[in-house]
Amino acid sequence: KTCTVRFDNNKYSVLSTAVGRPVEVHAYAEKIVIRQDGVSVGEHPRCFGRGETIYDPWHYVPVLARKPGALRNGAPFREWVLPAAMEKVRRRLKSVHDGDRQMVTILG
């Protein structure tokens, strides 16, 4: 499962808890809001391109508990800019055995 919703030829990420259940997509001029049972499960700047995927990496943090290696290689995390202190920890843990799992614990 990719934790995404397709709208207007693009994909937008949603919380992993929203997968497999109906959602409502509210499109505004500058943003997309995705709701499930009246609760926001995703909000993104609206993309007017085609075939693009817009990620919020925080939507995928719960999934990392099962796949910690995705933190290094997964599409939602490739361009993720963490706060400076968190990025420093992430760089340090890259060279440590089980560093991905440790970073996932910190993020969770």
Structure description:
With 108 residues, the chain is of the alpha+beta class. The chain folds into 2 domains: 1-54, no CATH class; 57-108, no CATH class. Helices cover 26% and strands 25% of the residues. It contains 4 helices and 6 strands; from the N terminus they run E-E-E-E-E-E-H-H-H-H. It has helices spanning 61-64, 70-73, 84-94, 99-107, and strands spanning 4-7, 10-13, 24-27, 31-36, 39-45, 53-54. Strands 1-2-6 form a 3-stranded mixed sheet, with no helix packed on it. It has a 3-stranded antiparallel sheet with strand order 3-4-5, with no helix packed on it. Strand 1 and strand 2 form a beta hairpin. Helix 3 (84-94) packs antiparallel against helix 4 (99-107). The longest helix has 11 residues, at 84-94. The protein is elongated and about 45 Å long. The model has no long low-confidence stretch (mean pLDDT 93).
Question: Can I get a quick summary?
Answer:
With 108 residues, the chain is an alpha+beta fold. The chain is 26% helix and 25% strand.
Rounded mean pLDDT is 93
Spatial ordering of strands, largest sheet: 1-2-6
Low-confidence stretches: none
Tally of separate domains: 2
Q: Roughly how much helix do the residues carry, as a percent range?
A: 25-40%
Task: Report the radius of gyration as a whole number of Å.
Answer: 15 Å
The shape, in one word, is: elongated
Task: Give the terminus-to-terminus CA distance.
Answer: 20 Å
Strand content: 25-35%
Largest sheet: 3 strands, mixed
Query: How many helix segments?
Result: 4
Counting helices, strands and paired strands, the structural category is alpha+beta
Number of strands: 6
Series of secondary-structure elements, N-terminal to C-terminal? EEEEEEHHHH
